[in-house]
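Reopening this one. Same input as before:
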Amino acid sequence: MKKITNILTAFMLLLALTANAQIKFGIKESINLSTQSELGMLWDTNDMKTGFTLGVTFDYRFHKTLSLQTELNYKRAGLAYAKKEVSGKLDVNRNYDYYNIPLLIKGRFNDQLGLSQKWMLSFYGGPYYSYLHKAESKVE
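Same output, byte for byte:
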């Protein structure tokens, strides 16, 4: 009987939390551009490489203007460049696959700035964890 009471109490607390807060789930997709440069040679970068980000998002709104957002993303980054050598042309293509988990505080300021509901001004900030899943390098 005590176990059932504890389960019901926990369930009621969860209902109370979700009644005050808005919880949203979403899908994230984007295209990104990346490059790589060597230390001390930041002005001499390689060509931009097009990659992508795919993931899921979880947004917990706990205040009128503030929410906590976390994501689980798969991101592909890398570099591509061509170099002329004495023996011929050298093409280098590198891909880096990452798993990213950011923990963000999001601030929304539509009402304070008088913006309509069609527009949303948001500021994000916070740390993230990134894990390099796979690295590939092709030289031709």
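So the earlier flakiness isn't reproducible anymore. For the record, Residues 22-139 form one domain.
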